[in-house]
Amino acid sequence: MNINDCIFFLLTKCSQTGVKFWAQKVSSLGVTAVQAMVLGFLSEEDMITSRQLGERTTIDSATLTGILDRLENMGYTKRQSNPDDGRSIMISLTAAGKKVAFDIRTLVDNANQEFLQKLSKEEEAMLRGLLRRLK
Amino acid sequence: MNINDCIFFLLTKCSQTGVKFWAQKVSSLGVTAVQAMVLGFLSEEDMITSRQLGERTTIDSATLTGILDRLENMGYTKRQSNPDDGRSIMISLTAAGKKVAFDIRTLVDNANQEFLQKLSKEEEAMLRGLLRRLK
DNA sequence: CTAAATTTACTCGTATACAAATTATTTTCC
DNA sequence: GGAAAATAATTTGTATACGAGTAAATTTAG
Predict the structure, then answer these.
(1) Which chain B residues are closer than 8 Å to A132 by Cβ?
(2) Cβ-based contacts under 8 A for chains A and B
(3) How far apart are CA A36 and CA A18, in angstroms?
(4) Interior CA angle at A21 toward B126 and B122, to 5°?
(5) DSSP string for residues in chain B
(6) CB-based contacts of B121: which residues, under 8 Å, 6+ apart?
(7) pLDDT bracket for residue A4 (50, 70, 90)
(8) How far apart are CA B116 and CA B50, in angstroms?
(9) A121 at the B interface (CB within 8 A)?
(10) Could you state, in chain order, the average pLDDT of each consecutive group of 10 residues for chain B (135 residues)?
(11) Distance from CA(A27) to C1'(D4), angstroms, rounded
(12) Which 71-90 residues of chain A touch chain B by CB within 8 A?
């Protein structure tokens, strides 16, 4: 079995390389790659339910619980009960969380470009389009 | 931060979708997606050192130790000492392992095709080429 | 209206992924 | 030859990822 011929393996390795690259970019902020993504996302759409956050980020609810635990421990997010529905919780950024999220947003575009610098603009657009269709 | 604009996120989600698809294909064999990959790889290049296996599959040595523990427990692989170098170990498939690996190899091409069926042959080749450059 | 079904977040257990430290062995270099 | 550097595999600790099950709250059916 040639590893490169297996699309699952190829996607995994490519993703791991990218995530490691991104993790290194945000490591100075003291957050992991995934935590940075969640914070960056919340900086656009704050005060939403955990379920909505999970939908938008396509992070499983069991996984999200742990991520929110750690972000909360670091003082970046908080959980509040939802007056409209006792089952769900509202997630929002703290002041400190907003600050880190801002830093993350200034990093992400640059990191994207740097990671994709081997590709031309056409190739990048092609790649994004193909990945979106497989997602 | 738009999730789809972040290449790291897009790659991760695409990879997760692919891995889940592949995991489902091999679940009847009682192995995980990664375990199936390792077995499939060993069916081509058996009796190599753990370090070589890690290089070929780009699986970290710490991760590989655990994977080999589980494969060994299932009776699919075995570790033997390397007479040429006391530090390293030789990995090989058992008879049972060869049988499962054979089944895996019959599954993988089909799974690849099925996962990529939304893409034309040209698009598939393009995707593989782009991913290899980012890997 | 109330019992059943559904939904939400969480817990639990298992499997990667990976950085850092450890142990045993081998290689290098003087 | 022997100390120092390098290498191989493992261990340890933390962070996802995810299936399965749970408790509490809400919605749906009859």
Answers:
(1) 4, 10
(2) 148
(3) 14
(4) 5
(5) --GGG-HHHHHHHHHHHHHHHHHHHHGGGT--HHHHHHHHHHTTS-SEEHHHHHHHHT--HHHHHHHHHHHHHTTSEEEEE-TT-TT-EEEEE-HHHHHHHHHHHHHHHHHHHHHTTTS-HHHHHHHHHHHHHH-
(6) none
(7) confident
(8) 32
(9) no
(10) 85 96 95 97 94 95 98 97 94 97 94 95 95 92
(11) 34
(12) none
Coil vs helix vs strand at A4: helix
Task: Dump pLDDT digits (tens) for A14-50.
Answer: 999 999 999 999 999 999 999 999 999 999 999 999 9
- Nearest alpha-carbon partner for B76 in B94, B103, B57: B94
For the record, the structure tokens of B70 come out as 């589980």
Phi-psi region of A30 (alpha: psi -120 to 50; beta: other; left: phi over 0): left
Contact status, residue B132 vs residue A135, Cβ threshold 8 Å:
no
CATH placement of domain A26-106: 1.10.10.10
CATH number, span B20-134: 1.10.10.10
Listed by start position, the domains of chain A span 26-106
Cα A65 from Cα B18, distance rounded (Å) = 24
